[in-house]
């Protein structure tokens, strides 16, 4: 299993078990640290979950 698959399964499990509730702010950096991997597989996993309708990306606010 590669890192993208590991990240995907971790995030999906957090959603399915209710640990990540609607409105939860998912931090790529915190997830990267928790899973001890680079940001690229985290980003790819997030894209996959977005395509499945489990996550919605919100743009960063202008300062």
TrEMBL record:
The keyword Transcription regulation applies. InterPro entries: Tscrpt_reg_HTH_GntR, WH-like_DNA-bd_sf, WH_DNA-bd_sf. It holds the Pfam family GntR. It comes from the Bacteria. The keyword Ribonucleoprotein does not apply. GO terms for molecular function: DNA binding; DNA-binding transcription factor activity. Residues 1-63 form the HTH gntR-type domain. Keywords: DNA-binding, Transcription, Transcription regulation. This is GntR family transcriptional regulator. It comes from Lactobacillus crispatus.
């Amino acid at each position: 299993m590669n890192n993208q698959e590991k990240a995907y399964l971790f995030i999906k499990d957090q959603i399915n078990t209710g640990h990540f509730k609607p409105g939860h702010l998912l931090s790529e950096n915190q997830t990267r640290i928790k899973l001890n991997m680079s940001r690229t597989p985290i980003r790819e996993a997030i894209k996959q979950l977005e395509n499945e309708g489990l996550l919605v990306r919100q743009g960063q606010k202008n300062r």
